[in-house]
Amino acid sequence: RAAVLELPSPLQTLHCCATTMHSYGAVEPSRRLASPRRTDGLQGLLLAGVLSLLVVSVLLVGIGQTPSLPEEATPSFETLVDDVLRDQNVRMASARGHALYQTSLSRGHLLKRVSLEEKRFRHSLRRYGHADEVPAPEGSLEHKRAQLLEAARLLAADIPIDTRRRTQEADPAPLALRAIEIDPSIKFQTIVGFGGAFTEAASIQFEKLAPEAKLVVLALYFTNAGLGYTLGRVHMNSCDFSPESYSFDDVHGDFDLSHFDDNVSHDQQKMIPFILAAQAVSLNKLQVFASPWSPPAWMKVPVTPKGSSEAVQSMLNSADPRGLLPDPQVQQAWANYFVRFIAAYKASGINMWGVTVQNEPEFAAPWEACKYNASAEMEFVGNFLGPTLKGAFPDIKIFAFDHNKDALAMWTEAVFGDGSPARDYLDGMGYHWYAGGMDRRLDGTQGYNNLKRAAQAMKSADLSPKILLGTEGCNCPGIARTEEISLFRAQRIAHNLIADLNSHAQGWVDWNLILDQQGGPNHLGNFCDAPMALSRFDESLVSLQPMMFYMWHIEGFLPPGSQRVHWEWVSLESGYEPGAYKISGPSGALPGLEMTIGTCESSSRQAWVLRASGQLQVWDTIDDGYSGICVASAPDKKLGGLLVTGCDSGLQGTFAFENGRIVLADD
Description:
By secondary structure, the protein is an alpha/beta fold. It is built from 15 helices and 22 strands.
C-alpha cells in the first residue's frame, strides 16, 4: 500500500514509503480502538496542541526561564505553514540550485493536496463502515490542526524524491505475478510499542525550537495522528549524547548514597520537561525506560587511559571483562542507585516502565561504558538489582543485554537457562540493530535468526511471557547530506523494522528523537542521524527526514496490542528461472552478510547459480549477472548460520547438487 502523491511536472513522483513494506508481513490491528487510529489522532489533536504549548510553558517557568510564546495560546495555522514551507524551499534551493523547487510547494498547492487526502480518507471510512465519523467543521481550530499535521507529514526533507529503483535497462521486465496469502488464525507476538530516546542531546535541540515547531515535534511523534509513540528511553547518568559526563552522586565511597541528588537536578533542566510535554500530548500511556551507560566513576574498576601509565576510575571506557567493582558493597550501592533514580523521576511526574541493566555491556566504548559478560550480568541481577528493584517497584520491567544481535541468542540462553539466578527477575531481552563490525548497509544489520532463537529460548524457559524489544538503532555518521544517503538510511530502517517484526520482536525504539545539523551534541564526536533535525537555516524550525515517513508507514499502524499474523508468498506463475525478473536492482549482497531462508518472491536477492566450479553464487542485475558473492564454507560462530563471502576470498565453499539437495562437497 504505497502512498504515492503526484507532484506537478517536472517533479515526477514522491513515494512516502517503499512499495514492498506491507508485503513482508501482516499485522492484525488491536480491537482496543473503536475507530481507525488516524481519526482518533485527529480528534485529539486540538488537545495535543494546547497541552503541548501549555506544558512546555509551565515547565520552562518552573526552572526559572521565561518562555517565548505568541500572544494567542494557539499559533496561526497560516503562519506555521509559511514557516515550514519557507524552510523547505530554502533548503531545496540550496541543496539543488534549481529554481523550480522554490515554487513547487506553494501554500495553495499544499492545502489542495491535504484536502484531497482528507477526502480520500473520509471515503475509506465510509467504505469500511465508519460513516458516523464526521470531519471537524471547515475553518475550526481542530480542522486547522488536522491540516497542519498533514502538511508537516508531507514535507519530508529534500523532497521530491523518487524511491523507485532504476536498472540499466530502458524497458525493464514486468513484475513477477505473485500475491500474499494471509491467515489471521495463526498469531504470533503481541506488539508492546514503538518509541525514541529522550537523550540530553535531543532535549537540548527541542528547547531551541519555536513553540509552533515544538508542537509539530510532539504531534508527529506522540499523537495517534503521527507515529503514536508509546515507548521512551532515557539514559541514567550521562551518555555520549550529552555535552559532558555527569552522575547524581560523585562522592567517593558513598555506599548509602547520602549525597545522591534526589531532585536529579541535571535532568530537570531539559530532559524531564521534554518527557512531561510528550506525556501531556499523548493519548496513549507513554512508557519510559532507563538505561545506564556507566555508574559513577568511584564504583568502577580503574582503567589506564591511552598515553598514561596510571590507572584511574572514570565513567569513560571500561575494564575488561567487568567494569563494575566486584565488591558486594559497591554492587548493592549500584542497585540502590537504580531505585533512587526511578523514585526521583516518579516524584517529577514520570513513572518508569522499565530499565535495561546496562547499555551495550560488551563494548568498552571511549565514552561512558561498563562491561559485563553474561555470567556477570546475571549475577548482578540475581543477587542485587533484581531483589532490590522488584522490592521497591514490583511492576517495573528489567531487560537484560541491550546490545547487538550477533550475541543476543547466546546471552538469552544463558540468562534464562537453568540455574540462572536472574531468570525469575528478568522480563525480557533488549537488543540493538548494530552487528559486530558491519557497516550497517541495507539488510546488513544481521542476526534475524538470533532474534528467533532468543524468542524461542525465552519461551522454552517455562516462565511467564517475556518481551523481545529493540532498544536502540540509528544511522551514522552524522546527518545525511544528500538525497541518496537520506533515502538509503530510511530504507535501511524500514527493512530492519520489518525483518525484526517477522523475527518475533515486540517493539522497536529509535535513538535520538531530534538532533542538530551536525548530528549532536556528542561529547566524544560520535555524531549520528535522527528522524528530525533542526533546520540548517533557522534552528527554531525543524526539518523532517525521509526515515520519519518510512517509520510512520510501519509504526503508525501498529498500536500496542496488535498481533503479527501468518503470511506467505503465493506464486501465480510457474517456470521461474534465476535472473528472469530484474525487478529490484543490484542485490546489495556484501561479504559477511547472513543467509536466511524465505519464501520465493523473485527478487535478485534470491537468485543463485551453482557454477561449474562448485561455487554457489549470487545472481545479480549488473555486469554479466554474477555478483562475485558466494556462500561461505563454514557457519559463523556467533550467528550460527552461513554467511556470504567473496568468491575469491578463499573462504567460499564448494557445493554439489545431489538427489535434490545442495550439499557442501567434501574436501
